[in-house]
Amino acid sequence: MTDIVKLNVSTYSGEGNSRLHLIRWLSEVDITVEDRQLPTELGRPLFLLSKLARKAKNWALGNLVADASCFPTMASMKADMRLAFQSLQYESLERSVFLSLKQGCMSMLEYIQRHLVSCITTHPFDMVTQVHVFKCFYLTRKAPMTLEIPSRLHYA
Q: Which residues of 59-94 are buried (b: 16+ CB within 10 A; e: fewer)?
């Protein structure tokens, strides 16, 4: 006799600290969908919808009321959920953690700068990462109190 294991997915509300765990929850849903072998592409977004709660469910049902075909695939629903519920600071938080790591005896920032010099023309960093590095590390340098000081230094 074969034992059948039924995977269960927790509900996602889109509120509180659980907002930071949207990616983990979507991975859990993917595993369950693959395990259950949902046959139709239409059944997958409906399964995802059945696992939403409170704010997230209100958001999804509101979208469905406005446009019944707003979630044609599970991928489109997941992309819309990321835009709606993933914290705007999440990407910046992960980037900060990444840049504060050490690579050998160098900080990650030094390692990235060294790598940038070696491949600046072939593989430049995207603008979001460049802005983040600028905000975190350039803005901590001392700035002159007035504009007269740099102009005096420039014309001296």
A: bbeeeeeeeeeebeebeebbeebeeebbeeebeeee
